[in-house]
Write a structure and sequence with these properties.
With 337 residues, this protein is of the alpha/beta class. Helices cover 49% and strands 13% of the residues. It contains 16 helices and eight strands. The strands form two sheets. The protein has a five-stranded mixed sheet with strand order 4-7-6-8-5. A three-stranded parallel sheet has the order 1-2-3, sandwiched between helices. The protein is elongated, with a radius of gyration of 22 Å. It starts with a strand and ends in a 5-residue tail after the last helix. The model has no long low-confidence stretch (mean pLDDT 89).
Length: 337
């Protein structure tokens, strides 16, 4: 297991012990100390554990540390954990069994729970690699702190320019090359605190997340996509322009058509992608109406224009087919993305 660590004195021992306490698997732990100034490396070394090795280096960021750690991995499988999280004792055994049983999967994650709290239900990860591939257009399909992977997959490497959101960039860049899946059980406990990267640098996280998404969309469509429209896919609640919502709906429909025609999919998987796309369209329709009714209403049919307040409730209860019809009516009133 590889654990990048920077100034993690308060949590690193707990994290390392949770890795060593795994059941039914042999574990070696590599801790990458990213130039810590609080004695993180010394604390780990003081454990005196032969299965733990510390690699020290100057402060260079998580992607560089991860790449350095992965160069030292000699086993066919490798797991990843954060220095402030804890793994369930059966985490690795379950993920290793899954990878052995599914040779087509390269990287498997899991659901997680916040320390002292319930499972993080807002992250509906999937065991279906095809659905995970589709969902990469809209969010990070795996929590990097929960993954176990074939070493050859992670050895592709993380982009050093992504000092945050390095996991999402990796998934976007390798979306067509690797297969991802996630187990439904929460096998990792994630620590939430004010000093986490996400909490300290939300603007940087957003910037690099969208950079990775825009690059993915350009590769997929062979053309650039308006940055505001791309942002509406990943951050639909942060857009205030109804026109952007409309263009995002068109983009979802285009991506869905490509996904359904470019791959030989089972009927169940096709339905999962279509259902997921429908719910994303429903959300954009509702947000567009709420955010800027004067702009959005001309694009809606007359029944919505007459009573937009009532329309919000009807959108929530509307069947999938009607949502699609409404989206098509909107698209018919607009140009292309």
């Amino acid at each position: 297991m590889v654990i990048p660590a920077f100034d993690a004195r308060a949590t690193i021992v707990d994290a390392v012990k949770s890795a060593l306490d795994q059941r039914d698997v042999e574990v070696r732990v590599l801790v990458g100390d990213d130039g810590s100034s609080d004695g993180t490396a010394e604390i780990v070394e003081a454990l005196g554990e032969s299965r733990v090795e510390v690699l020290r280096g100057e402060h260079s960021g998580i992607p560089v540390v991860l790449n350095r750690l992965l160069e030292r991995v000699e086993t066919p499988l490798v797991a990843r954990q954060d220095a402030d999280d804890r793994s369930h004792p059966d985490r690795l055994a379950q993920q290793v069994r899954f990878l052995h049983a599914h040779e087509n999967i390269d990287v498997v994650g899991s659901a997680f729970r916040y320390l002292g709290g319930p499972p993080a239900a807002s992250f509906p990860y999937t065991e279906s690699p095809t659905l995970a591939r589709w969902q990469t257009f809209f969010w990070c399909p795996l929590s990097i702190a929960t993954v176990t992977a074939r070493t050859s997959a992670l050895a592709i490497g993380f982009d050093p320019d992504f000092d945050v959101a390095e996991d999402y960039e990796f998934y976007c860049r390798n979306r067509s090359r690797l297969a991802f899946a996630s187990l439904p059980e929460p096998l990792v406990e994630v620590r939430r605190h004010a000093d986490s990267t996400t909490a300290r640098r939300p603007e940087r996280v957003r910037e690099l997340t969208l950079r990775a998404l825009e690059a993915l969309l350009e590769r997929t469509l062979s053309r650039p996509v308006n940055p505001e429209v791309a942002a509406a896919l990943y951050y639909p609640d942060e857009v205030g322009d109804a026109n952007v919502y409309g263009r995002a709906i068109e983009l979802i429909l285009e991506l869905e058509a490509l996904e359904l025609t470019a791959n030989d999919l089972e009927e169940k998987t096709r339905e999962e992608i279509q259902n997921d796309a429908t719910e994303r369209i429903r959300r954009l329709l509702g947000r567009g109406t709420l955010s800027s009714p004067r702009d959005v209403l001309p694009h809606f049919p007359a029944w919505i224009r007459r009573n937009p307040g009532r329309a919000i409730g009807e959108l929530a209860a509307m069947g999938a087919r009607r949502v699609r019809e409404l989206a098509a009516e909107w698209v018919a009133r607009r140009g292309t993305v």
